[in-house]
Amino acid sequence: MMLERFVFRRDDPESFPDDEAAPFTASSSTSQGDPFRVVFLIAEPPAVSRLYVQWPGPGGLDPAIGIACDLVTAHRDLVLLRLNCNPVTLEDSPLPHLQQDYFICRASSSPHQPPPPLLLKRIPMCRKPVLVRVKKGKELTMPRVFHLHTLGLLRRGKEDFAMAQLDVLDNDRSKPTGKLCMLRSRLSDHRWGVMQNLQIHYREEELLDLLYWRTDTVIPFSNFLCWVNYYQGGILFCNVFEEMPKLVYLRLPIADRPRDTSARTSFDTKRSVCVTEAGLKFVDVSREDGELLGPMEPGTGFTITCNTLKISESGDMKWDKDFSITSKDLWACNSSDLLPRSALMYPRVSMDRPHLVHFLLADQSYDGIYNVSTVSIDESRDDEIDKVFSVSIDMSTKAVVSILPYIEGGRDLRGKDADMVDFRSHLLQPFLPSEFPKFLNKSL
Predict the structure, then answer these.
(1) Using CA atoms, how far apart are residues 297 and 312, in angstroms rounded to an integer?
(2) Nearest CA to 64 among 442, 315, 419?
(3) Distance (Å, rounded) from C-alpha 93 to C-alpha 97?
(4) Cβ neighbours around 169 below 10 Å, total
(5) Which partner for 200 in 84, 219, 247, 324 could form a disulfide, CB atoms 3.0-4.6 Å apart?
(6) Beta bridge partners of 248
(7) CB under 8 Å to 306, separation ≥6 — which residues?
(8) 58 falls in which pLDDT band (50, 70, 90)?
(9) Would you put residue 24 in left (φ > 0), alpha (ψ -120 to 50) or beta?
(10) Across 12-16, 334-338, 392-396, least confident range
(11) How far apart are the C-alpha atoms of 162 and 164, rounded to whole Å?
(12) pLDDT at 337 over 50
């Protein structure tokens, strides 16, 4: 499935999907004792699946402060969620602490499993502290907070899984090493640990890639968690189930490897590393005008390039090019009604049909980040939010397979999904691919 990363919070029973519309549901409670409920509305791609949460208690983060529930990542029959509680003040810290509870949602395909077919398990808080430098060289010990885009989840077998966050330390810019904060566990036995000074295998000419490292996303692939940096163009592979994990660095096959980190921006608008039944693939959309966002310069187009990772028996890795297709090729095969002449963004290769690639496409007035005013939600904003479509293309034939509305402009601000539309009007994100539905008991 392609899962919408925005989590729909619906505390009102009338707006929360009922059991008939969404039978895949589960309930649990936060570390503060607040009960909550989740439900998945699952759709066959290219349609988009959704996650809803009902959290009527007082502990849920005030919407004026931020998002109460985040969809972190997924692998096989597991989905990792984060619930954000209202800030609390701790005795040993002068700063308010945002309590974050992580939950593993597990799908059950057993015909003997009574409804609901989902299991929610709260992950114990990681109590490995972080030292934060403050003024005059002083340090504060703070509770560890995980960033969404740096936390990975890897499933192994029917019971084991791992959660891990990686930091790359530059060690005075001479010999980068890795630091893992990690939980390796069976579902009934959770333990956190920190592993430091992990060796990174890289070539001499790749040193600068690691000195300026910043993770954009984490991908589970085979026995590895893969920390990806789209800007520098590289992947750090780590078998987190090894007794002493090591890190292997591999560059992505890009030609425009930047060195100016001061201008760093998110390249997930144009690049993605995707796990498919044909292996690990990397797809890149390169615009002729050199821009990441906004309407294309008149007379320009783009090129879509896809590569597949090849791993030899000895473990050597290299990229093999699958195809390189230009916008002119696509426009020659599809009318403008079927494929508007705009830039394609946020590519995602289909997991089970790797010849299909899914994109988001906005009309020509889209500039990536909308300057939305604080006016009330009414017709005055209809022209401020553009229409956005989900487009699926068969790259073997260059034919558009489907084009579905994702955001239908400002009028959606007056609909039942106004919160999602308002959030997406400021920030588009790629969908989260997952095999989760394959593990569900669909006889319910």
Answers:
(1) 42
(2) 419
(3) 8
(4) 16
(5) 247
(6) 201, 237
(7) 281, 282, 283, 284, 321, 322, 323, 324, 349, 357, 395
(8) confident
(9) beta
(10) 12-16
(11) 6
(12) yes
Q: Which residue has the tokens 């000895």?
A: 314
Over residues 23-44, the pLDDT tens digits come to: 888 999 998 889 999 999 999 9
Distances, alpha carbon 441 to alpha carbons 105, 117, 160, in Å: 14, 6, 21
- Lowest-confidence range among 42-56, 97-111, 295-309, 324-338? 97-111
DSSP state of 330: H
Percent of the chain with pLDDT over 70: 84
If we measure between CA atoms, which residue out of 147, 140, 142, 138 comes closest to residue 102?
A: 147
C-beta contacts of 32-37 below 8 A and 24+ residues apart: 32/59, 32/85, 32/99, 33/59, 34/58, 34/59, 34/60, 34/85, 36/60, 36/83
Q: Rounded to two decimals, what is the model's pTM? A: 0.90
Closest among 396, 274, 439 to 347, alpha carbons compared: 274
Nearest to 283 by CA among 295, 275, 274: 274
What the block records as the tokens of 345 is: 């963004």
Single-letter amino acid code for the residue at 368: G
Task: Look at the chain and count its residues.
Answer: 444
- AA letter at 240: V
Q: Which helix (H) or strand (E) holds 140?
A: strand 139-142
**70/7 Cα distance (integer angstroms):** 6
**pLDDT for residue 111:** 58
